């Protein structure tokens, strides 16, 4: 069975994607910071009959990243790495004039440095896979200028560029930076707690990710809403 590592997998998009892959028979290595919620997620996904390893921890910790890859190696390798864990830099978001530099550093550390660190750790196994794939979860804030989203958007723009360069350097892999579009997640609620407008559930965009995995287009940046629109 193929093996995927998914970070930030206890809820939101990470859990929804893990659920879909488990339903397709994938074995999973899941990461999140909150152990209890992650274990509940792993138990629910295990009902699909696949193997699920849940490793709570912080992706900015090199030892934790090594443990994630080691767990995947025991399951057979790494066919897919999803860098979904993210940090906002400030909760709620603030204008750049008020953004604490330590908050920006944290966003860059989690969203860019840790993501690249996990790629580096998993790269030998990804190269061995017949369909080695990296999905880096981006944001429309990486490409558009929204007030208060400057720090988070800058970190995701940097992740986009890392993804693009990795795709050029590793032609044997597929490397996709994917903007999932608007979703109702805890991350968004923490970013803009006063916004009560309903947003789509994370599960609603999962078909866009499955389409990428099925069709395997060239490495690059993709937007889930566009993929869903074309699929209709």
Classify the helix fraction into a percent range: 40-55%
Structural class by SSE content: alpha/beta
Q: In terms of per-residue confidence, which ranges show pLDDT below 50 for 5 or more consecutive residues?
A: none
Whole-number total of structural domains:
1
Chain oligomer state: single chain
Number of strands: 7
CATH topology: Rossmann fold
Q: Tell me the number of helical segments per DSSP (H or I, 4 or more residues long).
A: 8
Largest sheet: 7 strands, parallel
Q: Could you tell me how far the N terminus lies from the C terminus, measured between alpha carbons in angstroms?
A: 29 Å
Q: What coarse outline follows from CA principal-axis ratios?
A: globular
Can you give the mean pLDDT?
Answer: 97
CATH superfamily membership: NAD(P)-binding Rossmann-like Domain
CATH architecture: 3-Layer(aba) Sandwich
Topology, please?
Elements: E1 3-6, H1 12-23, E2 27-32, H2 35-45, E3 52-56, H3 62-75, E4 80-83, H4 101-128, E5 133-137, H5 150-169, E6 174-179, H6 186-191, H7 206-215, E7 220-223, H8 224-231
Parallel strand pairs: 1-2, 1-4, 2-3, 4-5, 5-6, 6-7
Helix pairs in contact: 3-4, 4-5, 7-8
Organism: Streptomyces montanus
GO cellular component, one term: membrane
GO molecular function: oxidoreductase activity
Describe this structure in words.
The chain has 232 residues and is of the alpha/beta class. It has a single domain (3-230), classed as NAD(P)-binding Rossmann-like Domain (Rossmann fold). The protein is 47% helix and 15% strand. It has eight helices and seven strands. It has helices at 12-23, 35-45, 62-75, 101-128, 150-169, 186-191, 206-215, 224-231; strands at residues 3-6, 27-32, 52-56, 80-83, 133-137, 174-179, 220-223. A seven-stranded parallel β-sheet has the order 3-2-1-4-5-6-7, sandwiched between helices. Helix 5 links the parallel strand 5 (133-137) and strand 6. The longest helix is centred in the middle third of the chain and has 28 residues, at 101-128. The radius of gyration is 17 Å and the shape is globular. 45% of the residues are buried. The mean pLDDT is 97.
């Amino acid at each position: 069975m193929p093996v995927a590592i998914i970070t930030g997998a206890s809820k939101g998009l990470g859990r929804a994607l893990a659920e879909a892959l488990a339903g397709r028979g994938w074995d999973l290595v899941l990461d999140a910071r909150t152990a209890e919620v992650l274990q509940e997620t792993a138990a629910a996904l295990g009902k699909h009959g696949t193997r699920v390893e849940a490793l709570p921890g912080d992706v900015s910790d090199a030892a934790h990243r090594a443990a994630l890859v080691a767990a995947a190696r025991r399951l057979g390798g790494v066919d897919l790495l999803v860098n979904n864990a993210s940090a906002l830099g400030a909760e709620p978001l603030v204008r750049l004039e008020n953004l604490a530099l330590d908050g920006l550093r944290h966003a860059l550390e989690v969203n860019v440095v840790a993501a690249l660190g996990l790629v580096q750790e998993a790269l030998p196994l990804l190269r061995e896979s017949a369909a080695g794939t990296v999905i880096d979860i981006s944001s429309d804030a990486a490409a558009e200028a929204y007030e208060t989203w400057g720090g988070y958007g800058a970190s995701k723009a940097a992740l986009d560029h890392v993804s693009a360069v990795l795709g050029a350097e590793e032609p044997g892999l597929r490397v996709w930076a994917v903007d999932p579009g608007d979703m109702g997640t805890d991350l968004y609620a923490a970013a803009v707690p006063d916004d009560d407008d309903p947003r789509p559930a994370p599960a609603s965009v999962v078909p866009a990710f499955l389409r990428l995995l099925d069709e395997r287009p060239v490495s690059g940046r993709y937007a889930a809403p566009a993929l869903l629109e074309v699929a209709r």
